[in-house]
Amino acid sequence: MRCLRSALLSLLKLTTIHFSTFIFSLLILSRLSFAAAPDRITDPIDSRQTIALPRSLHPKAQPQYDQGAVDPSRQFGYLTLVISPSVSQQKALDQLLVQQQDRTSPKYHKWLTPRQYGDRFGLSPNDLNRIANWLTSQGFQILSIAGGRNAIVFSGTAADVGRAFGTVIHNYLINGKEQFANATALMIPSALNDIVTGVIGLNSFGPQPSSHARNFAGVRNSRHNYYDGNFVFPNFLAPGDIATIYDIAPLYDASTPIDGTGQTPLSDRPTFTWPTSPTSAPALVLTRSAAARSIRAAWLPPAIPPISSM
């Protein structure tokens, strides 16, 4: 009788353990199901049924500049397939961005990790796998998938590009400079419409600024394009701006201030008239590639309050 009781107790404990494990597994699965984005690809990805990808033909890829097709074996080592959120995801994302900047919101400054972003606003794992398999079937190699599940990086040849996207990559000669680009709009499988919204890396034109600076007349400075406010609608940075952007103001108010006293920063001092107060320091014009250099090197002194003690 005692042996039978022991056996029943052991069986009960074992059953309880398995039941707890089962419940725990269900909780995990339910959480994953809640977090994962729903599948959006409802039809097979068929390269025989295609649709033109909007805005995929660069405006400079014009016949008068055309120098003919590139070698089909030409390698494209870093291409990016851009995946956009669904309408409902974009609406939720826009709302979150507002809440993250609203001091009264519980989501204020509650930033997302790439994985959290992917769970809420990215493509589902199933859909990502389907697109990756389609790219592989066209001859491409998958290099990486974005943590936010909104891009796939891949590589391949010009021939692969033509097979997958129904276009040909041509060379173009514009203003004496040779460029390359797809000669026609990209074609994507209809199943990916409104999901895939771009392919980056198929042209060499690169982004261009939407505005162009114009010099003021009569500026007498050999380096006026770099430091002074000689542009129409320039972007100025004063010392206080630099302190805010780089969050260095708390260093000034520390019990032992870290403000550069006694140090000699790297700077181009002959170019400036250095003030005794940071509030009267000349502002900085950010001119494209010079921006980061200016802030980190030549404009370190104006960001430090006790300039007169240096």
Topology, number of strands: 11
Global shape: extended
**Structural class, judged by helices and strands?**
alpha+beta
What percent of residues adopt helix (DSSP H or I)? 25-40%
Helix tally?
A: 8
Q: Which secondary structure elements does this structure contain, and how are they paired or packed?
A:
Layout: H1 2-35, E1 50-52, E2 66-69, E3 75-83, H2 87-100, H3 114-121, H4 125-137, E4 141-145, E5 151-157, H5 158-165, E6 169-174, E7 177-182, E8 187-189, E9 196-200, E10 236-237, H6 239-245, H7 249-252, E11 284-285, H8 290-298
Antiparallel strand pairs: 1-8, 2-6, 3-5, 3-9, 4-5, 6-7, 10-11
Defining traits:
310 residues; 11 strands; alpha+beta; extended; 3-stranded antiparallel sheet
Structure characterization notes:
The chain has 310 residues and is of the alpha+beta class. The longest helix is centred in the N-terminal third of the chain and has 34 residues, at 2-35. Helix content is 31%, strand content 17%. Residues 11-34, 223-229 and 268-302 have low confidence and may be disordered. The chain has helices at 2-35, 87-100, 114-121, 125-137, 158-165, 239-245, 249-252, 290-298; strands spanning 50-52, 66-69, 75-83, 141-145, 151-157, 169-174, 177-182, 187-189, 196-200, 236-237, 284-285. It folds into two domains: 50-200, no CATH class; 236-309, no CATH class. It has a four-stranded antiparallel sheet with strand order 4-5-3-9.
